[in-house]
Design goal:
The complex is a heterodimer.
Chain A: H1 12-38, H2 47-53, H3 58-70, H4 79-96, H5 104-126, H6 142-168, H7 173-188, H8 191-205, H9 214-240, H10 243-251, H11 256-286, H12 298-304, H13 316-348
Helix pairs in contact in A: 3-6, 3-12, 3-13, 4-5, 6-7, 6-9, 6-11, 6-12, 7-9, 8-9, 9-11, 10-11, 11-13
Chain B: H1 2-9, H2 11-43, H3 74-107, H4 112-126, H5 130-144, E1 152-155, E2 158-161, E3 164-167, E4 169-170, H6 174-196, H7 205-220, E5 226-227, E6 230-232, E7 235-237, E8 240-242, H8 244-270, H9 274-282, H10 287-317, H11 321-324, H12 329-340, H13 343-376
Antiparallel strand pairs in B: 1-2, 2-3, 3-8, 4-5, 6-7
Helix pairs in contact in B: 3-4, 3-8, 3-12, 4-8, 5-8, 6-7, 8-10, 9-10, 10-13, 12-13
The chains are: A mainly alpha, B alpha+beta.
Chain lengths: 349, 380
């Protein structure tokens, strides 16, 4: 069976399929063009005015894009989350670029950059210095919140996940059972239920003097949830390491932690980076669930952006706007993951 | 001192100590949580008591399968929520499987245009959040579909409007319940028969599935009455209706999960060794016969584990229903929490129900998986 022969018109059946698909594409494309460009309003002042021309209401995005991107963060201070976000993306991009890891010097520079960058981002977001009025975390929102929930959640989850994965393949039955129990529990319940737990039940679980804001609780719920999925991915990597590596480490006289941190984990983690990136993509999309505990992440802010009477009733424009943002982030990450998979595959062979 | 060191060096001893430590740690945190919960409850003059489930709930939902009404117990409300969750999951799983198969075949089609369209669609769907898609479909259904008067008649007597999907149904009578019971018995008979019958006659076993319910219906059923939706005033009356929320939820779940499942199916089909195809071709099998007899059965074995977890994730993802107000289990819990304040009890129920749904499905699929493996053996 020739699956990838490629032609569009090399047989009659194929030609019919091609023509039908071309016609559909053309119709969809023209329809979209008509809505998004020809009949769109770019300078209307209300949804009603937009409705008269019957096309997209881009004037709304022009008016509200900052609310969607930054949520309730004080308008005059929105350059701060914007700067923090750019800084963060630059750091992440530098950390994951294969070129960085080729030279030890670059890795050291990167470590310094992170240790300066993280406090700086915190300072930008919270403020509290002369010239930077304080902004409490309940006013954070939009894209910076989405990126933060996903990244901090996944970073915390990663540490826990390594321990859980080691526990799950451990020779000690008690550790194995406990890790399995944890993993199966968190993989068996929906994230929404955990967010409810974090929002509603949390105050009962801790001493009354512990007051955590909703942001921190949601962050914790994300970390605990994604740790279970990451642990399973890492376990796959651990089990793919040839037994000879374990034996070799042992015969060199290495103890458990030494062999794990120097021999086993570096190899195991390397092979599972693509699946970890995929989990990060899932986390990035799933942070949108915080709207159920009324936080204004990118999706929450987009929902809130039409609350004013003047723009009431619009939904395609804000959703399309944030869909493009999600798409850009997730496609970039999945392209990276695929590229890495190819490189790793080549390296291993 | 020396002997202590030597003892510590023995792996058995060390393992014992670590495990004892782990147990102690877990026990300590459980005790700590327990102390916190009892302390916090006492301070607020509350207790943990599932007895509230028997009290009457003041709310009811637009749609429910088990006939929950306002004033019925909270237990029946939870039952209605669970039934709605299960209904969405079953309909979603069935539709997802169909759509995913079509997408996967498009991805593998000899036509480049079909391949690229499917690939672009899958990329688009997989890289945007499910919740965003759900909200979009919900808005689209309630804003863009015509009102009941201009409803689309998809099939005779099946209407889709911004009030939901209306279709005709037979009015329930006791015989239906008995027939369902007979169907279960028939299924048992069919399994037994397929074990007993010789290889070539296995198909006869399906008769055993059909016969008992048909007998029950023939003996017991009164003339079947059908209720059809008809426009009366501002909305349809009669028939069975599915709310716009249900329609939006099923569309969103199907579109989203099918994109993921299509990739699984595709890699399953590509995962069948090339030699199998060549062998089939050299035996003179055509393209369709090769797919049906050689490729699909082997691909099935590869995809069962990942497809199982995708069915499970669909079921768990149906909990997003709460955001658009579809009365699923999560929504019932959150409404009950706000009505009774029993957060701990409700969330415990919620977690336990999802956990048992997940674990049961995983268990059943493992059984099935083991059977398929055993029957085919490892052909590679």
């Amino acid at each position: 069976v020739k699956r990838f022969s490629g032609g569009l018109f090399d047989s009659i059946a194929n030609a019919i399929v091609s023509l039908a698909l071309l016609w559909l594409l053309l119709r969809a494309g023209l329809g979209f063009w008509d809505w998004a460009i020809t009949r769109a309003s770019f300078d209307a002042t209300s949804a009603e005015q937009c409705a008269r021309s019957g096309g997209a209401c881009w004037a709304f995005i022009g008016d509200r894009w900052r609310l969607i991107l930054f949520g309730p963060y004080p308008y005059a201070e929105q350059w701060r989350p914007a700067l923090a976000l750019i800084l963060f993306i630059a750091l992440i991009a530098a950390s994951f670029a294969p070129a960085t890891w080729r030279a030890r010097r670059r890795v050291r520079t990167l470590a310094v950059a992170w240790s300066v960058g993280v406090p700086l981002m915190g300072l930008l977001m919270w403020g509290g210095m002369p010239g930077l009025p304080p902004v409490p975390s309940r006013l954070w929102g939009g894209l910076p919140l989405t990126v933060m929930l996903a990244s901090v959640g996944v970073a915390l989850a990663f540490i826990l996940a390594v321990l859980l994965a080691l526990g799950r393949v451990s020779e000690m039955p008690v550790l194995r059972w406990l890790s399995t129990l944890y993993i199966e529990f968190f993989r068996g319940v929906p994230l929404i239920a955990l967010l409810f737990l974090a929002a509603v039940m949390f105050p009962y679980l801790v001493p009354p003097e512990w007051t955590m804001d909703t942001l921190l609780r949601a962050q914790l719920a994300f970390a605990l949830f994604f740790a279970a999925y990451m642990a399973e991915a890492i376990r796959g990597g651990l089990q793919a390491i040839p037994r000879g590596q374990y034996l070799a480490a042992e015969s060199l006289g290495m103890g458990y932690w030494q062999s794990r941190t120097r021999i086993i984990l570096p190899q195991a983690l390397r092979t599972v980076i693509p699946s970890l990136v995929n989990i990060f993509i899932a986390a990035f999309k799933d942070t949108s669930l915080v709207v159920v505990i009324s936080m204004l992440d990118l999706l929450g802010a987009a929902n809130a952006s039409t609350a004013q009477a003047q723009w009431w009733g619009l939904y395609i424009e804000p959703y399309l706007f944030i869909a493009v943002i999600y798409l850009a982030f997730c496609s970039a990450m999945s392209a990276y993951s695929r590229g890495l998979e190819r490189r790793l595959g080549v390296g291993l062979r | 001192m020396d002997s202590i060191q030597r003892t510590w060096k023995r792996p058995g001893v060390r393992a014992l100590v670590w495990q004892a430590l782990a147990i102690a740690l877990v026990a300590a945190s459980v005790l700590w949580l327990h102390a916190n919960i009892t302390g916090n409850l006492a301070r607020r003059d509350l207790d943990i008591d599932f007895g509230f489930l028997r009290a009457g709930a003041s709310f009811e939902f637009g749609e429910n399968l088990i006939g929950h009404r306002a004033g019925d117990s909270f237990l029946s409300a939870f039952g209605a929520g669970l039934a709605n969750t299960v209904l969405v999951a079953i309909v979603g799983i069935a539709l997802t499987t169909v759509v995913a198969t079509v997408l996967a075949l498009m991805r593998l089609s000899p036509n480049r245009l079909a391949r690229n369209i499917a690939a672009a669609w899958i990329e688009l769907v997989r890289n945007t959040p499910l919740l965003l898609q759900l909200l979009f479909w919900h808005q689209l259904v309630i804003r863009q579909l015509p009102g009941p008067r201009q409803a689309w008649e998809l099939l005779p007597d099946v209407f889709l409007s911004n009030r939901g999907l209306y279709f005709p149904a037979a009015i329930a009578q006791p015989a239906f319940g008995h027939a369902a019971l007979a169907f279960v018995i028939g299924a048992g008979l069919a399994i037994a028969a397929s074990r007993l019958l010789p290889e070539g006659r296995r198909r006869l076993a399906w008769l055993a599935l059909m016969v008992p319910p048909l007998i029950v219906l023939a003996v017991q059923a009164e003339p079947i009455e059908i209720t059809r939706p008809a426009l009366r005033g501002f909305n349809f009356q009669g028939g069975i209706s599915l709310s716009p929320e249900f329609v939006a939820l099923v569309i969103a779940l199907t579109v989203y999960q099918a994109a993921f499942m299509a990739e699984t199916l595709r890699s399953g089909i590509l995962g069948v060794p090339k030699g199998q195809q060549e062998a089939a071709a050299s035996l003179g099998l055509g393209r369709t016969a090769t797919l049906r007899l050689v490729i699909f059965p082997q691909a099935l074995r590869i995809v069962i584990p990942p497809v199982t977890s995708q069915y499970l994730s669909l079921t768990k993802n149906s909990s997003l229903a709460v955001v658009i107000g579809y009365p699923d289990l999560v929504r019932v819990s959150s409404v009950t929490i706000s009505e009774t304040g029993r957060a701990i009890e409700c969330i415990t129920i919620l977690l336990l129900v999802y956990l048992s749904l997940s674990l049961t499905t995983a268990f059943l699929m493992n059984l099935y998986n083991r059977r398929v493996m055993a029957r085919g053996g490892d052909t590679r």
